[in-house]
Amino acid sequence: MNKKIIFRYHAILRMFERQISEADVSEVIVTGKVIENYPTDQPYPSCLKFAYSAGRPIHIVVADNSAEQSFIIITVYEPDLDTWEPGFERRR
Prior knowledge:
Blueprint: E1 4-7, H1 9-18, H2 22-31, E2 33-38, E3 46-53, E4 56-65, E5 70-77
Parallel strand pairs: 1-5
Antiparallel strand pairs: 2-3, 3-4, 4-5
């Protein structure tokens, strides 16, 4: 991956409390599937990506700052079946 990864403070807090590592986030960025797009997010368009890391489902909201060649991690979480359909790709 050629782009730099920047973690927002909120994402770092959530990663710590949810025991999600930087390696998990990197894996989702590289291998993950975009399941929702947020093209009007400001200051950069973002999306929700999903992948399994170490057998665990992970969602990340990531913005793409193409001008600075960076990904900005906004939040990170493990989806649950109360909010997501089985497979974790569609909201209930």
